[in-house]
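pls design
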C-alpha cells in the first residue's frame, strides 16, 4: 500500500514519537512517505518529505493543495493519515477541490484538549475514519466534537520495546554515579518534557510535604530539556523548599537509563492523550503512580492513582512505597503483560494497517 503519514512537524513529543514509530513499522511492508514541515529524528530520513503545512494564508493553502495533488498522483497514494488538525483541514480543502477523485483519509486525535465550539467543529475534518489513541480521546470525539462512534477506531499507542531491558548492576551504578545518586536512595523518576502540563511542580510540592525522615530516603530524577522557562520555575521552587538534594535533572536521556535506575515512576500530568512514558514504565517493570488523564481508562488495573493537582496524594503514595517497596509487585507484572499484549509498535501498526485496508476497500 502507498501511504502518506502527514504531520505539521515531528518533534520530541508524544505525537512525534508516535509518528516516527508508526512510520518505522509500516515502511517494512509498505511504501510510506512522511510529509511534515520538520523532522528531528533519524530513523525515517529516507522517507521524509519536507513540506511546510503550517504556513498560513489562502494563497499558501491553495499552493499546498496543488502540491499535494502532484505528489499523490506521482506516487499513486492510496491513503493519507493526518496527525494534526491543520493537516486535516488541508485534506478537507483538497477533497473539496478534487471532489471527483477524493483521497482516502484517516485522522488521528492525540489529545482531548482541542477547541470544539461550533466554528471549530465545522472546520474539523475527520476523513473516512478517526483513530482515537485512548478511551478518553474517544469519549471526547463523541461528546465534544460530535463524531459518530461508528466512525472511530480505538488504537492504543505503541512503543518499540526492543531495547527496554533491565540494566545490569554495573550499568545501574555507572548511571547513578553519573548523576551523583547515592546507592541506598530510593529513586523516583519523572520522564518526559519539562512543561507545566506534566505537573512536575505538583511532585515537588508533594515531596516537600514529606516528613524529613522520608525526604532523606528518596531522590527524584527528572528527564527533559532544561532549556525552558518552566525548568527555571521548578529550580526556584525546589530552592525555596531547600530540596536541592532531592532532585536531579538529567536533560534528555535514554528511556532505558532513567527507568533502569528507578524504583517508582510518578506521572502527575494535568493532561495527556495517552502517555507513552506510562507504557515505558510498564515494559521496564517500574511501578507507576499516575493521574486520571488520557489512557487511564485503558490501563487502570496497571497503575495506582493520584488526583490532578493534589500534592497530598503524592505524599501519601511516597510514604506507602518507602514503607513497603514491594507494595506494587503484583500490579507491575499485570502492567508488563498488558503492555506486551497491547502496546508494542508492531501491534499498533498492524491495527492501523488493517484500518487503512478497510478504508481503501470502501
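designed seq:
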Amino acid at each position: 500500500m502507498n501511504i502518506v503519514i502527514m504531520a505539521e512537524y515531528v518533534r520530541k513529543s508524544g505525537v512525534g514519537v508516535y509518528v516516527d514509530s508508526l512510520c518505522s513499522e509500516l515502511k517494512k511492508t509498505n511504501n510510506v512517505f512522511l510529509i511534515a514541515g520538520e523532522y528531528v529524528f533519524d530513523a525515517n530520513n529516507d522517507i521524509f518529505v519536507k513540506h511546510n503545512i503550517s504556513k498560513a494564508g489562502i494563497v499558501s493553502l491553495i499552493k499546498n493543495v496543488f502540491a499535494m495533488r502532484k505528489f499523490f498522483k506521482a506516487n499513486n497514494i492510496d491513503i493519507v493519515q493526518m496527525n494534526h488538525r491543520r493537516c486535516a483541514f488541508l485534506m478537507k480543502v483538497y477533497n473539496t477541490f478534487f471532489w471527483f477523485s477524493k483521497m482516502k483519509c484517516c485522522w488521528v486525535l492525540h489529545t482531548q484538549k482541542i477547541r470544539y465550539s461550533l466554528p471549530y467543529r465545522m472546520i474539523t475534518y475527520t476523513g473516512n475514519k478517526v483513530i482515537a489513541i485512548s478511551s478518553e480521546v474517544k469519549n471526547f470525539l463523541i461528546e465534544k466534537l460530535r463524531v459518530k462512534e461508528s466512525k472511530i477506531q480505538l488504537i492504543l499507542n505503541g512503543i518499540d520495546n526492543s531495547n527496554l531491558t533491565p540494566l545490569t548492576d554495573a550499568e545501574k551504578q555507572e548511571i547513578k554515579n553519573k548523576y551523583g545518586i547515592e546507592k541506598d536512595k530510593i529513586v523516583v523518576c519523572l520522564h518526559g518534557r519539562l512543561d507545566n502540563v506534566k505537573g512536575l511542580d505538583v511532585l515537588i510540592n508533594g515531596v516537600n510535604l514529606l516528613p524529613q525522615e522520608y525526604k532523606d530516603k528518596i531522590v527524584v530524577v527528572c528527564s527533559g530539556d532544561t532549556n525552558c522557562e518552566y525548568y527555571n520555575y521548578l529550580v526556584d521552587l525546589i530552592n525555596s523548599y531547600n530540596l536541592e538534594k532531592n532532585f536531579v535533572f538529567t536533560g534528555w536521556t535514554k528511556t532505558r537509563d532513567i527507568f533502569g535506575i528507578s524504583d517508582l515512576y510518578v506521572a502527575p500530568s494535568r493532561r495527556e492523550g495517552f502517555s507513552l512514558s506510562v507504557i515505558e514504565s510498564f515494559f521496564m517493570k517500574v511501578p507507576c503512580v499516575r493521574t486520571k488523564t488520557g489512557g487511564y481508562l485503558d490501563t487502570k488495573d496497571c497503575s495506582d492513582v493520584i488526583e490532578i493537582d493534589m500534592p497530598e496524594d503524592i505524599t501519601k503514595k511516597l510514604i506507602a512505597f518507602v514503607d513497603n517497596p514491594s507494595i506494587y509487585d503484583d500490579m507491575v507484572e499485570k502492567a508488563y503483560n498488558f503492555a506486551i499484549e497491547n502496546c508494542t509498535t508492531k501491534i499498533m501498526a498492524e491495527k492501523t494497517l488493517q484500518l487503512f485496508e478497510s478504508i481503501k476497500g470502501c
